[in-house]
Write a structure and sequence with these properties.
The chain has 455 residues and is an alpha/beta fold. Helices cover 31% and strands 26% of the residues. The strands form 3 sheets. The protein has an 8-stranded mixed β-sheet. It binds zinc ion (ZN) (2 copies).
């Protein structure tokens, strides 16, 4: 399995294909700016800019060839250096005559090797990748050096949603063999297939990794729902141990686990493995600041955020934004005053890279709270002054609310694979007066538009 990925922001890969392939009579070109992250043995390139040359920027353009003017290429390199946040160039061109099974030509090889030689001789520490598009699939590669020789390493393109993606011409036909789980008679997902359809279930079960940060009352319900929904690879992240007071809500945790103070990730993964022994469940008993988590998070197709403190929520989102991975955040709230529930509610936020929306600009993480939780001693001081609630306050929690939000979160995630309903960035559940569910369009409309984090 290849470990080099190019990640596109929401909608950008589809827009690129549509624009470049709109003219079937001639090859077209685009230049992408990227940020390269090396995480363990994975290379992750996040696309941060797309440049389309104008007609006059081409020296020549035909059905099976194209040549750009040197000035255009130089101008983009200058632009790249002025931006200062780009270390990767990705060159994209089309083979409009090729309907599928696209491959780089000998001319492509020669041109790219020459260009890369010039590029690496001109600028330091620049990575160079390329993509070729047919009418229905793509091939992609990252150039590297093997001594004097340039070698092309295969690259997989990741889009925010699987629905936006295209097949990789180099990938083995993995979808050809259906999983036993999808067998219409005996598969454990047979009834799900009846509900959602085989193609949708294939998309969800194949090659998708979901990371869950926080596997307490909310995260454990989400994890269970994900496995029941057919997801086959989960990363569970939580450094906490099971306590007696958790047993009113953690799915898969038993009294003996609390007595033994077992790790939440261990307890929950055992539970999930019993539901689907073929699922791969990786347990990470670490805090979100632990560097060793990065490889697990970097390979995730979605990061589900289910912790209840601002510092870890902020940190998790920062990782998602850095790697360009879509984030699904879930939260609950129960307020009690004078023995009466004054609010029981929760929300699901979906923030895909490129959506220009995040927990910060939505006002869902408070800087003072982050500081209180991150800096020793400061929390107590701020709490004393009334800025934040005390760190050690035990929040009220009930399973029913967690179960509602956990199910809503996974339903919203599944919708990203099947698009049965329109995308809703913020979905709120309120269990006050009468229970109700609504898209929070107001928060989205009133978010800070000049957000430093997701802009
Ligand atoms: Zn070509
Ligand atoms: Zn933002």
């Amino acid at each position: 399995m290849t470990t080099i990925r190019i990640r596109f922001p929401q909608g950008e890969f589809a827009a690129l294909r549509q624009r470049l392939l709109s003219d079937p009579t001639q090859e077209s070109f685009a230049l992408l700016f990227g940020q390269c992250h090396q995480v363990g043995d994975q290379t992750l390139i996040k696309v941060v800019g797309v440049c389309h040359p104008a007609a006059e920027d081409y020296d020549s353009q035909g059905l099976a060839h194209l040549r750009l003017k040197r000035d255009y290429v130089y101008a983009r390199l200058v632009e790249m250096q002025q931006r200062g946040d780009v270390d990767t160039l990705i060159d994209v061109h089309t083979h409009p005559f090729s309907s599928h099974g696209v491959a780089f030509s000998g001319v492509d090889d020669r041109d790219e090797i020459t260009f890369r030689q010039w590029l690496t001789g001109t600028l330091d520490n620049i990575h160079y990748a390329s993509i070729v598009l047919s009418q229905s699939d793509y091939a992609a590669r990252l150039w590297a050096s093997d001594g004097e020789r340039a070698v092309a390493q295969p690259v997989v393109i990741k889009t925010q949603t699987v629905l936006e993606n295209w097949p990789c011409a180099d990938a083995p036909a993995a979808l050809a063999a259906p999983l036993a789980a999808l067998d219409p008679q005996q598969g454990f997902l047979a009834r799900s297939v009846l509900a959602l359809g085989l193609d949708n279930l294939r998309r969800m079960t194949h090659d998708q990794c979901i990371a869950i940060v926080g596997v307490g009352g909310l995260g454990s319900v989400i994890a269970e729902n994900l496995v029941h929904s057919g997801f086959h690879h989960l990363q569970l992240i939580d450094h906490d141990h099971v306590e007696m007071t958790n047993l009113n809500r953690i799915v898969g945790a038993y009294a003996r686990d609390a007595e033994a103070k077992r790790l939440k990730v261990e307890v929950v993964s055992e539970h999930l493995a019993q539901i689907n022994p073929n699922a791969r469940i990786d347990a990470h008993p670490c805090g979100i600041n632990d560097e060793c988590l990065l490889p697990a998070l970097a390979q995730a197709d979605w990061i589900v955020l289910a912790t209840d403190n601002h510092a870890s929520r902020f940190q998790t989102q920062a990782i998602a934004l850095r790697f360009g991975i879509p984030l699904l955040s879930v939260g609950t709230n129960i307020s009690v005053s004078d023995g009466q529930i004054t609010d029981m509610s929760g929300e699901v936020i979906i923030a895909r890279a490129g959506d220009k929306l995040c927990l910060n600009c939505l006002g869902r993480v408070a800087p003072t709270q982050i500081a209180a939780e991150s800096i020793d001693g400061l929390g107590a001081e701020l709490a004393r002054r009334g800025y934040v609630s005390g760190r050690d306050v035990k929040e009220p929690a009930v399973k029913t609310l967690n179960a509602m939000l956990g199910a809503l979160a996974v339903d919203a995630l599944v919708n990203q694979y099947i698009e049965r309903q329109p995308h809703v960035p913020v979905l709120v559940y309120e269990n006050n007066g009468l229970p109700c569910l609504y898209p929070d369009t107001e928060s989205v409309a009133q978010r800070r538009k000049d957000c430093f984090h997701c802009g």
